[in-house]
Amino acid sequence: MEYIEDNSKKNQVTSLDIDKLKGDGELTKAKPQMSSFKLYTGSKSDLQNDKVKKKSKESLIKQKKEIKSVPSNGMNLFNRVSLTDNMLFMDNMSTMLRAGLALTPALKTIKNEIKNAYFKKILQYLTEHIENGQTLSTGMKHYPRVFPDMVIATVEVGENTGILADTFGHLADIMKRQKELRSKIVGAMMYPTIVIVALLVVSGFLALVIFPQLIGLFESGGIKLPFVLRAVNSLNFVLRNYWHFAIAGLVVLIFLVKIVFSKSGPKLFLHTVILKTPFLGKINRELALTRFAGNLNALLGAGLPIVQSMEIVAKTLGNLKYKKEVLAMSKELEKGRSLQVAMAKRPDIFPSLTVQLIKVGETTGQLEEILEKIFTFYEDRVNNILDNLSAILEPVLLVIVGVAVGFIAVSVIGPMYELTNSFAE
Hints:
425 residues, elongated, disordered N terminus, 18 helices, Receptor-associated Protein
C-alpha cells in the first residue's frame, strides 16, 4: 500500500510539473518576470550602445563637415599660390615619398614649413581629406587655380599606378622649366619697359609742366602756335577743368576693353592677329609649341590616353587659337585619326618639321621620345630669342626715343625762333 501511495505522489508531482511546464503553474508565471527583467537589462545596454553609435556618427558627420569646409578658392589678391611655391611643394613631396615617408606625414611636414598662409590651409584640407579615406587627386580638384588639370590628372595616374613619387618629381621638373622660362621673359622685357616708362614720364612732365609756361610766353608775344602745342594746350585745359570726367572716361574705356576681349570671339581674333605679327607672332608660336610638346609628353608618360591628354593640354595653352585647334584635334583623334594627320591639316600653327617628327614617332612607336625632342628644340629657340631680345630691341627703342625727342624739339624750336626774331625787331 505504501508503495502504491508513493507512486501516486510521484505521479502527482509529475502531473504538477507537467502543468507548470504547460504554463498553468506558479513557476511559469514567475519566469516571464525574470525574462522580462533580463529583457529590460538587455534593452538598456542596447540603448547605451545606440547612444555611443549615435555620438560616433555625429562626430564623424561633424568631421566630414569640417573637411568639406574647403578654404576659399575665390578671386582674392591674397589667396594666391605662386609657381615657386607649387614647384617646391612637388619637389619636396617627391623627395619625401622616395625616402619612404607616407603621404599624410609628408603633407603635414610641408605644411609646417611653408610660409604661405593660404597654401597652408589647402595642405591642411588635403591632409584631412586623405585621413578621411579619400585620394589626393580628388582633394586637389577643389583648387583648380592652384592645381591645374594637368597636375590633377598626372597625380591621379600616379596614385593608380603606384608611382606617385616619380609623378611628383616629373611635375617638379616641368614647373622648374616653366619658372626658368618665365624668369627669362621678365628679364628680357625689363629693359624695354623701363625705357618706355621713362619716355612716357618725361613726355607727361613736359606736356603738363613745361609746355604750358612756354605756351603762355608764345601767346603773349603773338606767336602762332603749331599743332602740337595747340593739342597740348587743349589737353591741359581738359585735365585741369574736367579731370574727374577724364578719369571716369579712362576707367570706363579700360573696363569696356576688358569686357570685349574677355569674350571668346574678340579674344580669338586678337590672338590670331598676334600669331600673324612678324616678330611677336614667332615668339608666341614657339612658346605655344614648347608648352604643347612638353605637356603632352608629360601626360603620355604618366599613362593617360592621348585623347584625354590632348584635352588637358588644350587647357594649358595660353593662346586661344592653339587651344581651339588642339581641342578640335582631340575630337579627330577620338574618331581614329592619327596625330600627324590632324596636325598636317593646320600648317599655320604646326610647322612641317614638327609634323614630320610626329609622323616618325607614331610610326616607330616612340611618340614620347619625339615629343621630348620637339620640346627641347623649341625651348632652346625660345631661350635664344629671349637672351638676344634686349640686343634686338635696343636699336628700335633708340629710334623711338630719337623720334619723340625730335618731335618735341621741332614743336618748341619753331615758335622760339619766331619769338626771338620778334624781340630783335
